[in-house]
Amino acid sequence: MTQLRQEVDPGEVGLDAKALDRLDQHFAHYVDDGRLPGYLVAVARGGRVAHLTTHGLRDVAAGLPVEADTLWRIYSMTKPVTSVAALMLVEEGRLSLDDPVARHLPAFSDPQVYESGSGAGLRTRPAAQPPLIRHLLTHTAGLTFAFYHNHPVDALYREAGLDSAVLPGSDLAGTVDAYARLPLQFEPGTQWNYSVATNVLGRVIEVVSGQPLDVFFAERVLGPLGMTDAGFCVTDEQAPRLSELYGETDAGGIEPIAGLPLRGRPRFLSGSGGMVASAYDVHRFMELLRRRGELDGVRLLAPETVDRMTRNQLPGGADLRAFGSRPAHDEPGNDGVGFGFGVSVVIDPDRTQAPSGLGTFGWSGVATTTFWVDPGRDLTVQFMTQVRPKSSLRLFPDLKRMVHEAVTD
């Protein structure tokens, strides 16, 4: 077990220590007011951690503090890891971005697209083109989530028992087959809708590699990067370091809620949202991307592949707002933000809700975790807590603003 540590004084890397203190005080209020149990925030420049703060509790009832080695359910921050794994297979020639998904998952051989109506009157037609691997990476395949309530296909997901994106009692293969039996919301490649696509991508990785997703991750990504605590479950030794998960109450406080079943290997290996990790693990992953595919002599991806991953891939070069759709965990504003392969990408800093450098990329998780890499400022940031909000806690715009205020060069 390796934990994150501060490596350099903020001033040595062009960061204002007083501004970072203001950031700490701001988020400490969330803990003191009972809106967060505790949190960790880390800011690094040039790969060196210049600010690391832990505050509050990882387990309120037990009075256990957040520490640098606390483990967090990162939920959708799993998606960029799955995307890196898929791109590794692309580089090896075992997968192509332009492969039809059905080449690897025959259940997708006859895709139908929503045409009109709802319920018993819902009508579909054959898709004009099949969903491709690149569509899974960019959430443009026409898939959706059951917990959305803005399209008739969302309701079909609920009727199929996919409320939590997994078919009850099933594994990844069975669940993905259930997705394939449902119509697509739109023609693949024409729109963006945050969806179960990365679970499908995880299943593609299993089929192409011949390994279960957790084994492929451990052997090909997590192990080589030294992400020693990251995975789909926690051991008995790790369990005491795992943060409790909380939900936001109607009164604006928090209460414990059930989270991912992390004790013992899960039956359903979710490439979309199944991982647990420490701040050190997340820092290592950010460093891989900041350094364009290489870390400590280990290269997982070519620089050009990381450049492509972190470049806007949306139809027509549009931003997310153009598609009238928002991630379920409310990324910090979709104006001026595009999407690459598994990560959001800032394409117009003048239009973003929070200060953002051009080309900044990253992603967030539903338990109010986030990371981003700002190549222009050579900056990486992560924020970890464990609260599933009823709406948005609106933490991330403040975090982005206050980090930017701390940059002095």
Question: Concise description?
Answer:
The chain has 409 residues and is of the alpha+beta class. It has helices at residues 17-32, 78-91, 133-138, 152-159, 172-180, 197-209, 213-225, 279-290, 303-309, 395-406; strands at residues 38-45, 48-59, 64-65, 71-73, 112-116, 123-126, 246-248, 254-256, 276-278, 294-295, 298-299, 337-339, 344-346, 361-365, 369-374, 379-384, 387-388. It has 10 helices and 17 strands.
Report on this model:
With 409 residues, the chain is an alpha+beta fold. 27% of the residues lie in helices and 18% in strands. It has 10 helices and 17 strands. The strands form 5 sheets. It has an 8-stranded antiparallel beta sheet, with helices on both faces. Strand 1 and strand 2 form a beta hairpin. Helix 2 runs parallel beside helix 6, helix 2 (78-91) crosses helix 7 (213-225) and helix 5 (172-180) crosses helix 6.
Q: Which features characterize this protein?
A:
27% helix; 409 residues; alpha+beta; three-stranded mixed β-sheet; globular; eight-stranded antiparallel β-sheet
Q: Over the alpha carbons, how many angstroms does the gyration radius reach?
A: 20 Å
State the total count of DSSP E strands: 17
Q: What's the rounded overall pLDDT mean?
A: 95
Question: Which sheet architecture does the biggest sheet show?
Answer: 8 strands, antiparallel
The stretches of 5 or more residues where confidence is low (pLDDT under 50) are: 328-332
By DSSP (H or I, 4+ residues per run), the number of helices equals 10
